[in-house]
Amino acid sequence: MRAGITVAVTGGLAMSTATTSTATPTASAKPASPTHTALPAAAGSAAAALGSAVTAPVIVLPTASVPKLRMGSRGSSVRRVQRIVGVYADGVFGPRTHRAVKRFQGRKGLYRDGIVGPRTARAMGLTYRSRASSSASRSSSRSSSSIVYHARRNLGARYRYAGSTYSRGFDCSGYVYRVFRNAGVRIPRTAAAMDRRARRVSYPRPGDLVFYNYPATHVGIYAGGGKMYDSGRSTRGTTLRRLFPGRVHYGRIG
């Protein structure tokens, strides 16, 4: 009897099959008992090496952020929680959602109050967003809108070196200073001092500051779409125009 060993390595697993060729059986021949064939050492090493090289892909999912949720809450954050606790996602935190959250808290060993606070949110794989951070975000958005609004209102004023009023005219920093003061935001008077006060950002949003050179020798207000409000031309005064080439960087107040 001749035995052949075939080794296949697939996905880190080694499989062996034994093929046997025998002569024509005779009456006195006894059936062979099954035997287990050991893998050669080289085949085992190859399988182990391949198994260590094949790994499952790692998928990183974004973590959702939710505020405190309780009876009466509504919106997309409620729908997200409802899907996690296994109830119909209608976006309304009613009695059914309240009971489902309490069951979830019980399974996780949490206090069963039916409120999605910091600990419950973490157990659900969510990021808890406090009321203070939500209010700060809304306040920042309102401030940016107010700055852009006042920047538009002060367009058309003439250019005047060291000027900081609409009637007398503006220079670049005087215009920015007046716009921010009208929006209720206190900032320094000169471009260089504004640059030192601002927090550097890579991707500006409307209402951010546009600085040229280090230290800053010119400043404007970013309007979006690659444009800015500024007072930099003695012949045109305060205008909305495209950013011009130069050593530009951006800053955010607040």
Q: What can you see in these coordinates?
A:
- This protein is 33% helix and 23% strand.
- The protein is built from seven helices and twelve strands.
- β10 and β11 form a beta hairpin.
- α5 (131-153) packs across α6 (172-182).
- It is elongated and about 70 Å long.
Could you give a quick summary of the protein structure above?
The chain has 254 residues and is α+β, with helices and mostly antiparallel strands. It has helices spanning 41-53, 76-85, 95-107, 118-123, 131-153, 172-182, 191-197, and strands at residues 2-10, 13-21, 65-66, 127-128, 164-165, 169-170, 199-201, 209-212, 218-224, 227-233, 237-242, 248-252. Mean pLDDT is 78; it is low at 1-31, 33-37 and 42-63.
Key features?
alpha+beta, 6-stranded antiparallel beta sheet, two-stranded antiparallel ribbon, 12 strands, disordered N terminus
What is the topology?
Layout: E1 2-10, E2 13-21, H1 41-53, E3 65-66, H2 76-85, H3 95-107, H4 118-123, E4 127-128, H5 131-153, E5 164-165, E6 169-170, H6 172-182, H7 191-197, E7 199-201, E8 209-212, E9 218-224, E10 227-233, E11 237-242, E12 248-252
Parallel strand pairs: 3-4
Antiparallel strand pairs: 1-2, 5-6, 7-12, 8-9, 8-12, 9-10, 10-11
Helix pairs in contact: 5-6
